[in-house]
Amino acid sequence: DQQVKQNSPSLSVQEGRISILNCDYTNSMFDYFLWYKKYPAEGPTFLISISSIKDKNEDGRFTVFLNKSAKHLSLHIVPSQPGDSAVYFCAAGISGTYKYIFGTGTRLKVLA
Amino acid sequence: EAQVTQNPRYLITVTGKKLTVTCSQNMNHEYMSWYRQDPGLGLRQIYYSMNVEVTDKGDVPEGYKVSRKEKRNFPLILESPSPNQTSLYFCASRAGGYNSPLHFGNGTRLTVT
């Protein structure tokens, strides 16, 4: 049972345009969400997070939106740059526990 | 430089030959964890440790062992590797809070023939 789903395995976007990566979850107990970026031959690196008490968190070109009623979060990258080409994982966690559940990842390609 | 270091980066072995993948962090983090990444399955947690001598199973612990004798080290042990353990493995650590982000190592690609 995949509790965190990223239904788009890949996404291509033109440089300068917006990239929108989506993530759905099934467990309503999740109250903390993170996005990680992974380049080939490297480990995932933390990008941005959001707590369930918020519906938006912004950090430079990256914004994460959380829709609790729909159990859906999205990562917006504006403007997209070729260096953003990577695999993006969303992850969800529960307060007081010690693990995150990761999605299957979306490979973003930003075309120059 | 703050980092999580895994060794080796690549490992090819045969079924049944015991192996250990080492993981070390220099950030004094209490929490450490092992994940495996497989196509179409994302990152799945194998084991985690909240502190020295405190470990617990993740989602896919079968066939793996861990130990946490020192705060900085968290080795992953495969007593009798099998081909279905061929995967990309990541070690990660974080400071105490559940909402602290994980810091990952660069991965170990294991092939079991």
Question: Can you characterise this structure?
Answer:
The complex is a heterodimer of chains A (112) and B (113). Chain A has strands spanning 4-5, 10-14, 19-25, 32-38, 45-51, 56-59, 62-67, 72-77, 86-93, 100-102, 106-111. In chain A, a hairpin with a 4-residue loop joins strand 7 and strand 8 (72-77). Chain A has no helices and 11 strands. Chain A is 0% helix and 54% strand. In chain A, strands 2, 4, 5, 9, 10 and 11 form a 6-stranded mixed β-sheet that branches. The termini of chain A are far apart. With 112 residues, chain A is mainly β. Chain B is globular, with a radius of gyration of 13 Å. With 113 residues, chain B is an all-beta fold. Chain B has strands at 4-7, 10-13, 19-25, 31-38, 42-51, 54-57, 65-66, 76-78, 87-94, 103-104, 108-112. In chain B, a hairpin with an 8-residue loop joins strand 9 and strand 10. In chain B, strands 2, 4, 5, 6, 9, 10 and 11 form a 7-stranded mixed β-sheet that branches. In chain B, strands 1-3-8-7 form a 4-stranded antiparallel β-sheet, with no helix packed on it. At the A-B interface, strand 4, strand 5, strand 9 and strand 10 of A face strand 4, strand 5 and strand 10 of B.
What would a concise description of this structure say?
By secondary structure, chain A is mainly beta. In chain A, 0% of the residues lie in helices and 54% in strands.
Keywords:
heterodimer; A: 112 residues; six-stranded mixed sheet; five-stranded antiparallel sheet; 11 strands; B: 113 residues; mainly beta; seven-stranded mixed sheet; 50% strand; globular
